[in-house]
Amino acid sequence: MAFVPSFTVTQGSDITTFSIEDSSSGTDAAITVRWIYLQLSDGSYLVPSGTTTDYIVFPIVSGIGDTIDLEVLNTDYAISITVQWRSNAASLYSSSEDYGFSNYEKQELYNLTSTAQASNPTIIKDETYLMSKLKLFESVVSGDNAIEQGADISSAQQCYDRGLAIVANSNFYF
């Protein structure tokens, strides 16, 4: 059966980490290693601390079904993820997908709900609080939508950055 490259991305409760699983089908005995590129909207590459290349080595263990956990998220990012299946130096197959990781902002939205609103339910009548929370929510939804509908990591990152500015200056907004 011919090799068809594919991967899936998942993120659990740890907002600093996500996983990539090789979900390819078929076989190709020439494949010896996989490389992962995490390209940001500014063209730079995200790699784990200490990595000296612009790619991450994803070793072959069992092949299909192998998973690698990547602890690289120190903020919200829109990322173009490319996995290459390689025979040493030569790329044999490649697959790319765009992903939005907005859990830092989502965590702040939850914190606002679980702390401010839980301890003071009438705060949602405060126009400044409500509008600030709405702006943060809009940034997350718009960023995620830019990825899901338009595969547009540049617009998504702009939205995430706008929301992250609200989070960083939350004492002025909330």
Structure description:
This protein has 174 residues and is α+β, with helices and mostly antiparallel strands. Helix content is 35%, strand content 29%. It has helices spanning 103-119, 127-150, 153-168, 170-173, and strands spanning 7-10, 17-22, 33-40, 56-59, 67-71, 77-87, 90-101. Strands 4-3-6-7 form a four-stranded antiparallel sheet. A hairpin with a 2-residue loop joins strand 6 and strand 7 (90-101). Helix 1 (103-119) packs antiparallel against helix 2 (127-150) and helix 2 runs antiparallel to helix 3. The longest helix has 24 residues, at 127-150. It starts with 6 loop residues before the first strand and ends with a helix. The mean pLDDT is 95.
Task: Describe the structure concisely.
The chain is an alpha+beta fold.
Query: Rounded to an integer, what's the Rg over CA atoms?
Result: 19 Å
Look at the helices and sheets and give the structural class.
alpha+beta
**Number of β-strand runs:** 7
Strand order of the largest sheet: 4-3-6-7
Tally of helical runs: 4
Shape summary: elongated
Which regions contain 5 or more consecutive residues with pLDDT less than 50? none
How far do the termini sit from each other? 57 Å
What composes the largest sheet?
4 strands, antiparallel
> Helix-strand pattern, N to C?
EEEEEEEHHHH
Q: What proportion of the residues is helical, as a percent range?
A: 25-40%
> What average pLDDT do the residues reach?
95
Strand content: 25-35%
